[in-house]
Amino acid sequence: MRYYYTPYVQSPPFQLPMVPPHSLANQQKREQEAQQDDDKIGKVSKREKRDIQKAINDEYTAIQYYTRLAQLAPIEKAKEEILGIRQDEIRHFYQFTKSFYQLSGKYPKLNIFNQQFPNSYRQGLRESIRDETETAPFYFSIASRTNDLKIKRRFTQAAFDEQRHAQILQRLLEELK
Q: Which whole number is the average pLDDT over 137-164?
């Protein structure tokens, strides 16, 4: 038996699977989800924005802290190493600011407050080691949540830098003993 195209409906030579029709509510729900996905493209979540803002403020604080710690350093070699760490923190500050602007289209607001500076070199090293050790996982978490490859690379590199800084500071502390 041959089937020809005709204006009237003719049954096909095979059985079509029965697919239950989608309700109007399900269709509207899928359309809303698709719209929400489209709205997320090119935008930043509040958490991501807040975390990058915190990272920027932390880097600004670290720049000031390492300036003071370098002044307390008992030997020139230690001072140079601390100023090298400070230089990395300046680079992170500018990179994070660039990332924030890239995601939000705005520059971040610095939350500058009365910062506690170290009273002694040894105390400053201990606080810096603790801070650098806590900061690395935070930066890795930001990197893991972002979809932007440049930002992911910036925060991953900064996290590795923070780990390296902790090692340098730990060595400087051990040299005091």
A: 96
Distance of CA 171 to the CA centre of its chain: 28
- Span between the terminal Cα atoms of the chain, in Å: 98
Query: Alpha helix locations (H) across 76-120?
Result: 76-104
Give the start-to-end residue ranges of the domains of the chain.
45-105+113-176
Residues 161 and 88: beta-carbon distance below 8 Å: yes
Residues with Cβ within 8 Å of 176's Cβ and at least 6 positions away in sequence, in order, are 74, 121, 122, 125
Q: Are 107 and 101 in contact (CB under 8 A)?
A: yes
pLDDT in tens, 138-150: 999 999 999 999 9
19-59: pLDDT as tens digits: 444 544 555 555 555 455 434 434 668 899 999 999 999 99
The sign one gets for the Cα dihedral 80, 75, 124, 138 is positive
Tokens, residue 52: 């990058």
**45-105+113-176 fold:** Ferritin (1.20.1260)
Q: Which residues contact 61 (CB under 8 A, 6 or more apart)?
A: 115
Burial class (CB in 10 A: 0-12, 13-18, 19+), 42: exposed
